[in-house]
From TrEMBL:
GO terms for biological process: 'de novo' IMP biosynthetic process. The gene is purN. Transmembrane segments: none annotated. InterPro entries: Formyl_transf_N (IPR002376), Formyl_transf_N_sf (IPR036477), GART (IPR004607), GART_AS (IPR001555). HAMAP family: PurN (MF_01930). One of its GO terms (cellular component) is cytosol. One of its GO terms (molecular function) is phosphoribosylglycinamide formyltransferase activity. It catalyses: N(1)-(5-phospho-beta-D-ribosyl)glycinamide + (6R)-10-formyltetrahydrofolate = N(2)-formyl-N(1)-(5-phospho-beta-D-ribosyl)glycinamide + (6S)-5,6,7,8-tetrahydrofolate + H(+). N(1)-(5-phospho-beta-D-ribosyl)glycinamide binds at G12, S13, N14. Belongs to the GART family. This is Phosphoribosylglycinamide formyltransferase.
C-alpha cells in the first residue's frame, strides 16, 4: 500500500477527510504521517484522535528553509513515504522537498486556479463578485498555487452568500474530491487524471 504524508498548518479538516477515507478503505493508501508547521494547530489534535503520528516542526527553529526541509525529508525517508499531500499547508515548498518528491507533491486550493492564488482565496473571490468559484487540485512546483492542474470543481456563488456559507460549500467539496482524486492518482492510470465537476 502506498504511503502518504499530509502537510497541514491549520484546522486539518482535509487531512481528516483523507485519513478517514484511508482508514475505511475508500482510499487505498496509508497515511503515515501528519507534518504540521504550526505548534498548537487543531490538525495535531485530529492526528492524535485518528492515531496518526505527527511531526510538529517549526521553521523558526532552523537556520534556513533548506535545513527545515532536510529534517522533514529525513523523517519521510525513514517512513518510506512516497507522496506528499498538502492540505492547508500555508508555506511554499522549497527545492529540497521538490527535488526529492518530483511530481509527487499535490495541493488543494479553494478557488478555480489560476484565479485567486495565495491566502484568503474564498474572501477575495467573494469580494470580487464572481458568480462561480471552486476548488482546484494541482501538482506542486516552486510557485504559489501554481503547477499543472489535476482536477477542479466549480461552486456557484449564490445571492446573499457570506464568507462562512461559501467556505462551508467549498470545504464540503474538498472533503470528497481530495480523497477521490488521490485514489485515482495512486491507484488509477499512470497518466494524470483531468476532472471537472460542477456543484450548485
Ligand atoms: C482548505 O480550504 C484549503 O483549500 C486551503 O486551506 C484550507 C485548509 O482547511 N488551502 C489554501 O488556501 C492553499 N493555498 P483545513 O485545514 O480545514 O483542511
Amino acid at each position: 500500500m502506498k504511503k502518504i504524508a499530509v502537510f497541514a498548518s491549520g484546522s486539518g479538516s482535509n487531512f481528516q477527510a483523507i485519513a478517514v477515507a484511508a482508514q475505511s478503505g475508500i482510499l487505498n493508501a496509508e497515511i503515515s504521517l501528519l507534518v504540521c508547521d504550526k505548534p498548537g494547530a487543531f490538525a495535531i489534535d485530529r492526528a492524535e484522535m485518528l492515531g496518526i503520528p505527527a511531526l510538529v516542526i517549526s521553521p523558526k527553529s532552523y537556520p534556513s528553509k533548506a535545513a527545515y526541509e532536510a529534517e522533514i525529508l529525513q523523517k519521510l525517508t525513514s517512513l518510506d513515504v512516497e507522496m506528499i499531500v498538502l492540505a492547508g499547508y500555508m508555506r511554499l515548498i522549497g527545492p529540497i522537498l521538490l527535488e526529492a518528491y518530483e511530481g509527487k507533491i499535490v495541493n488543494i486550493h479553494p478557488s478555480l486556479l489560476p484565479a485567486f492564488p495565495g491566502k484568503d482565496a474564498i474572501g477575495r473571490a467573494l469580494a470580487a463578485g464572481v458568480e462561480t468559484t471552486g476548488v482546484t487540485i494541482h501538482y506542486v512546483d516552486e510557485g504559489m498555487d501554481t503547477g499543472p492542474i489535476i482536477a477542479s470543481a466549480s461552486v456557484k456563488v449564490e445571492a446573499g452568500e457570506t464568507r462562512e456559507t461559501l467556505q462551508k460549500k467549498i470545504q464540503r467539496i474538498e472533503h470528497s474530491l481530495y480523497p477521490e482524486i488521490l485514489e485515482e492518482l495512486l491507484n488509477g492510470e499512470e497518466e494524470a487524471v483531468q476532472w471537472e465537476k460542477s456543484v450548485h
